[in-house]
Amino acid sequence: MSIFFRRLLCAIGIVIAFPLYPLNFFDAGSAEELAAKIETAMTDEQALAQTFMLGWVGAEPSPLIMEWIRSRNIGGVKIFGWNTADTRLLARAVGSLQEISLAGAFNIPLLVATDQEGGWVRHVKGNTSETPGNMAIGASGYPRDAYLAGLYIGKELALLGINMNFAPTVDLFTNRGSTLIGPRAFGSDPVKAGILGAAFMKGQLAAGVIPTAKHYPGHGDTDLDSHGVLPKIEISFDKLWERELVPYRMLASEGLPAVMSGHLAFPMTEAASMPASLSPWFLKDVLRTKIGYKGVVVTDDLMMNGATSWAGTLSRTARQALHAGNDIIMLSTTPFLFDPVWTYLVNSMKEDEEFRINVRAAARRILELKLKYLRGASSVPYIPDPEKVETELTDPEGSAFFLNLAARSVTIVKPTPAESVFPVTKENAGRVLLAGRYGDFFTSGRAAFPNAAVYRYWNADEASEIVNYARNADTIIFCLSDFLDVRVLRSLERMGKKIIILSVLSPVHIERVSWADGIVVVYSYAPESFAAGFSAIIGRIPAHGVLPYE
């Protein structure tokens, strides 16, 4: 073990007697040279283990995940929402897992990954920022907003020891019925998505976090969810190349370090009915050769039906994923140590030389990625500092930025010009009713209209009472987020009341209620978004955002 590494651990109060190996992660040398040396020195099982990224259930790491790290030296772990309610506990968990990994062969740290896209998808909760999200960035249109969003999200993850983020999402908002992507997209324009995705990527890198663009080759043109089924997207490769693949082509040219492959079928391409995540044509011929991508490819969760429904079993899915050109196979839960997903792959390496070569090449790319980003003064700490987690996770500078982003993204869709309805004031609104389901909507609404009546509902049965409340109001400000809200809102259409809609998340639902007097769009249910939306309604701020799709 290098003197540098011992000093690093001692500096943060950790003294561990590590075994000595002829090579270790902290030896001098370039990432390419040292990765080649370590991979060559690895056994086949050690190389295979680097391709595994596993999740666990619960707030604290299970004995099983710890044993996978201790006895197998797996390459990474994935942090899911069910692990993250207590950020201080999460930081301690990450540190304990890294300690075990750093004590293993070659002293290789773990990739610690999560999904912290901003906006709707925020797996690490606790005291982390709720943000306006990608579609808000698309509505503002400023690459600097994307860069700073990536930077501030990355800084929070780095404090927790999370060194890899499955973001930016560069799927396009091409299918209005998509319930999976929606506001997770920057918009429908592929070039703008590429520009904003590249800026977000660079912000993450500035924070020391490895960004991962997803879901290759594009999840936007389907209303199906690959968690439950394998979506089939009926477009030609030419269209795919000029639309969905544009952001990947742009980001690859900017040095994108990681891509997540999606469980999506494109029957009109050479991959036919095979999921892109399991397709050598999509991953090797298109991504590696045609696009020229050099980084690491990680699968979306292989336990999703979109993957296993094609291959039949998890072990066969994992083998096909590595054969196709993925470097990391990600599983949301922890299999038993001798589960077929492990033993089948070990036997495949013994019996199939081509598969063995693929796995070892994947391990080398993973090591290169780690050596490039997980060592040095700017890298994410292996052992998070609990005091910094407590005092620095809430960053006033970041909070101010996200509030300003929310304000820049507010979009008034109706009327045009807005001056015929807005601002809504105490003088022209009369008696105001606030109706919706989100607590922060009412908090911001009552700040804007202190004397407003409130009607909060949770389901269709409760919503049926809204007409009785509406009778006593002159102006109704309604929070619209999904189809249930559309149905509730329609019950007010013929009451002759002034209806102002504050749309959150995907704005596609406003098309069903175009009869409303005024429509204001924000793109998240973060507190900042509600505050910005009401500020625009009452005229405190201008609304310069533009719907980022056609």
Q: Could you explain how this protein is built, in words?
A:
The relative contact order is 0.12. This protein has 550 residues and is of the alpha/beta class. The protein has 23 helices and 18 strands. It folds into 2 domains: 49-392, TIM Barrel (Alpha-Beta Barrel); 410-537, Glycoside hydrolase family 3 C-terminal domain (Rossmann fold). Residues 1-18 have low confidence and may be disordered. The N and C termini lie far apart (57 Å).
Number of domains: 2
Overall pLDDT confidence: 93
Low-confidence stretches: 1-18
CATH structural architecture of the largest domain? Alpha-Beta Barrel
Strand arrangement across the biggest beta sheet: 11-8-7-6-3-2-1-12
According to CATH, what is the class of the largest domain?
Alpha Beta
CATH H-level superfamily title of the largest domain = Glycoside hydrolase, family 3, N-terminal domain
Q: Indicate the overall shape.
A: elongated
Kindly report how far apart the N and C termini lie: 57 Å
Please report which band the strand proportion falls in: under 5%, 5-15%, 15-25%, 25-35%, 35-45% or over 45%.
Answer: 5-15%
What is the CATH third-level topology name of the largest domain? TIM Barrel
Number of helices: 23
Q: What is the percent of helical residues?
A: 40-55%
What structural class do helix, strand and pairing data support? alpha/beta
Largest sheet descriptor: 8 strands, parallel
Q: Rg to the nearest angstrom?
A: 25 Å
Count of strand segments: 18
